[in-house]
Design a protein that fits this description.
The complex is a heterodimer of chains A (155) and B (624). With 155 residues, chain A is mainly beta. Chain A has four helices and eleven strands; from the N terminus they run E-E-E-E-E-H-E-E-E-E-H-E-E-H-H. In chain A, 12% of the residues lie in helices and 46% in strands. In chain B, strands 14-18-19-17-16-15 form a six-stranded mixed sheet. The chains are: A mainly beta (155), B alpha+beta (624).
Chain lengths: 155, 624
């Protein structure tokens, strides 16, 4: 863990992995992290929708982030986790390869991505890159991953 | 005061609605409607006075006295028009009160018309004497309304006894109906008497088998009497206080209760499963008792949610009348089955589509009187709106005897709009269905009536979203009939659970006709399309595993015959698992527009099961 000097200038991020890449999301966007339970597939759903689960009585749509980011799919294993976020009053789960840890990141260590990257439609959810002693961390805005307009285009 | 405002507005609007209905009855010559309108007007006046809306009170007051003059007279069309105009004005005032808390809308035109009409009426016909009771009532200071309870065995005798008892404490001037009628047995009557209200009250409270009674004093100052005659006939107490056993409940509260019950039903299923697994006698017993209570609770709440179609239908006669006038058409509008009950949500959702269909019928369906005459039909067109219960469904029909649908016109339009190719060979049925496509309208001119933004496609989508179906029957120059089939409720439905490729799906039982085993004898491939032969009939079939893109490893499949728009189709599943009541949960976000599913449900063991929506699953892009 990095030393925290000024609370207001640090963000707490949950670090997860998709393939070889490390990603981080702001902890305030995350409601909980669960292991995948029985997922019901919905035929004809957009490709990246893994299915739906019953999360304590609430129907929750599960999105496969690998597919959403255009990566090759990977079968569910013991490390697979679902990051549950609340978005527009709907609860949505994001399936990732594994969730590693929670990190503190100082604002000065976050670098915005060049506009040539973020202006691309499929990279809108990229918030920046966090520099950690042990490497780089791609920060994403989960709310932008869930942009409904994009979904319409995808279908 | 603002607390009362919402209530005032709601109630006043209800009364305006009531008046609108009565006006139309009045127009047809039903004179008893006057009393209803009068009462409604009086109540609005009273409420407006209480709330301090002087302008509204004034208007109502003027109308009220005008109405009292109309009692027992022929009512001219002109008068009804004026009354309708006034009720519209009252609505306008109410809207203004809601928006700006002010009732300042100019009503002088109406007041003037009333005065001129009154003059005209008094010239043409002599003012009739009011009923006997009313004349006597002028001398009485008490107005007593008595309702004998329904279970009273001898109402006539009881009525006489009451009158006798009253005679001891006061002087009876008149009764309504007459004393002889009361003797014959009548459970609600009015007594006009002179005496002390307290004593009367004491006497009446001591008599058995009176359900309720109200005593009102009719004393009126002489000054007011001079100004207008109506006050003296109306008691000071605005209305006999109706004893009401009902309370108003916000729809949102009902919805919340319904959701909670939905959760309970799910948990019930879960507990049943657990108790079945562990076989503990005490647990099984407790669970089965709980099951019963939850089931009856569910039934009760469903009942509460049911409302009569009248609630929505009642606004249509006025609309048809106004529309027909505007278009210079003669239309008789008939409604049937107003008692039919439908889930509140379903009914509310259907309100606009039905309105659109009726507008269509008046605007496009019914011809002008001249055209009808030329065709040898009666000048007055007929539009019938009916609702009835049929098996598990509620059927709503909108029927007119107008010009029917011109298939050639539809065809041309569809080609023009690029919906079909010029060479396309379509059956009559297919042509008719074209009007349900988005962006289709056979109307050449954009009228005010059809320019409402609700198209036939919206009507169809709404019906299908609610789990219903829609059928169009039309014959040239004979008329058009649109039949809408709706499930009475949407929240909890009976369903068939089937397995496809190892996953469970639910099919609403209302769609299912029957189920048959599939083998090489009855499943035939004809030109690449699968058909099932059931009792000699070919039924187009679809393998769910193919539609859903999963594998089917079963040797013996089941064909579930479903009905969609009166056509039969077979859905082939791996096996049937169970028949169950399920709670429909809508799909949200990404999945809300998915074709083929109307929602999902949670089974007792916690698994999530998609609910198949037959119409959108098979609806496909038939013409696309």
């Amino acid at each position: 863990m990095q030393a925290v000097k000024n609370e207001s200038e640090t963000v707490q991020v949950i670090v997860f992995r998709l393939g070889e890449e490390r990603y981080g999301v702001d902890i305030s966007q995350v409601r909980e992290i669960i292991r995948p339970s029985q997922i019901t597939k919905i035929p004809n759903a957009p490709d990246f929708v893994e299915g739906i689960i019953n999360l304590r009585g609430q129907i929750t749509t599960i999105i496969n982030l690998r597919k959403r980011f255009g990566m090759p799919p990977k079968p569910i294993d013991n490390d697979t986790r679902i990051i549950v976020v609340e978005y527009n009053n709907a609860v949505i789960g994001m399936m990732v390869d594994t969730v590693n840890e929670v990190k503190y990141l100082a604002q000065k260590d976050i670098e915005a991505l060049p506009s040539i990257v973020t202006s691309r439609e499929e990279a809108k959810f990229l918030k920046g890159v966090g520099k950690l002693p042990d490497g780089l961390l791609i920060l994403i805005d989960l709310n932008k991953v869930l942009n409904e307009g994009e979904v319409e285009k995808l279908r | 005061m603002s607390d009362y405002k919402a209530e005032f507005l709601q109630e006043a609007r209800e009364y305006v609605e009531l008046m609108n209905q009565s006006f139309l009855r009045l127009e047809k010559g039903d004179n008893s409607a006057i009393d209803e309108i009068f009462r409604a007007m009086h109540t609005i006046k009273g409420m407006a006075g209480f709330m301090g809306y002087k302008n509204l009170e004034n208007l109502c007051h003027r109308l009220e006295s005008f109405l009292s003059e109309l009692k027992g007279k022929e009512v001219s069309e002109e008068t009804v028009d004026l009354l309708l105009l006034s009720s519209d004005r009252i609505s306008e005032i109410l809207n203004k009160i809601e928006a700006e808390n002010s009732d300042e809308i100019d009503c002088d035109d109406i007041l003037d018309s009333i005065t001129s009409l009154e003059k005209k009426e008094s010239k043409t016909c002599e003012k009739k004497e009011g009923g006997d009771s009313k004349r006597f009532a002028e001398d009485a200071n008490l107005r007593i309304e008595i309702k004998i309870s329904d279970d009273c065995a001898m109402k006539g005798v009881r009525g006489l006894l009451i009158l006798e008892a009253l005679k001891e404490v006061c002087e009876i001037k008149a009764t309504e109906p007459e004393e002889s009628k009361i003797e014959e047995g009548c459970d609600l009557f009015l007594v006009f008497a002179n005496g002390d209200a307290k004593k009367v009250d004491e006497v009446l409270s001591g008599i058995a088998e009176i359900e309720r009674y109200t005593i009102s004093e009719t004393g009126i100052s002489k000054k007011e009497r001079k100004e207008d005659k109506i006050e003296e006939k109306t008691p000071e107490v605005i209305q006999p206080q109706k004893k009401s056993d009902s309370v108003r409940v916000d729809v949102k509260v009902l919805d919340t209760i319904m959701n909670l019950i939905g959760e309970l039903v799910i948990i019930k299923g879960r507990l049943l499963q657990i108790s079945g697994k562990y076989e503990i006698p005490e647990l099984s017993e407790a669970v089965s008792i709980m099951e019963k209570s939850i089931t009856s609770l569910q039934d009760e709440v469903m009942k509460v949610r049911m409302v009569k179609v009248e609630r929505v239908f009642s606004k249509f006669p006025r609309m048809v009348r106004d529309l027909a006038r505007k278009l210079g058409k003669k239309v008789e509008f008939v409604m049937e089955g107003l008692d039919t009950e439908l889930d509140r949500t379903v009914l509310d959702e259907m309100s606009d589509p039905i309105m659109h269909l009726i507008r269509n019928a008046v605007d496009h369906g019914i011809e002008s009187p001249e055209e009808r005459k030329a065709k040898g039909k009666s000048e007055t067109g007929l539009i019938k709106l009916s609702a009835r219960r049929e098996k598990n469904n509620v059927v709503i029909e909108i029927e007119d005897d107008g010009r029917g649908i011109d298939l050639e016109k539809i065809r041309k339009k569809a080609i023009e709009r690029g919906l079909i190719s010029e060479s396309a060979q379509l059956s009559e049925e297919e042509l008719k269905n074209l009007i349900f496509l988005p962006g289709f309208s056979t109307n050449d001119r954009a009228t005010e009536i059809s320019g409402r933004g609700v198209g036939m496609d919206v009507v169809k989508t709404t019906v299908e979203r609610l789990g219903g179906s829609l059928k169009l029957i039309s014959e040239k120059d004979r008329g058009t009939k649109i039949r809408i089939n709706l499930p009475p409720t949407v929240a909890i439905i009976k369903s068939l659970l089937v397995s496809v490729g190892g996953q469970v799906y639910a099919i609403p039982l209302s769609n299912v006709v029957e189920a048959v085993y599939v083998d090489s004898n009855n499943a035939k491939n004809i030109h690449g399309n699968l058909f099932l032969i059931v009792r000699g009939k070919l039924i187009p079939s679809f393998r769910l595993s193919q539609l859903f893109g999963c594998e089917n490893g079963k040797e013996r499949e089941v064909g579930i015959i479903v009905e969609k728009e009166s056509e039969k189709y077979a859905l082939i599943a791996d096996s049937i698992i169970d028949q169950q009541e399920i709670v429909v949960k809508p799909l949200t976000g990404y999945l809300s527009k998915i074709k083929g599913f109307s929602g999902v449900t949670i089974l007792g063991d916690g698994t999530v099961v998609p609910i198949i929506d037959i119409s959108s699953l098979l609806g496909g892009d038939k013409f696309g």
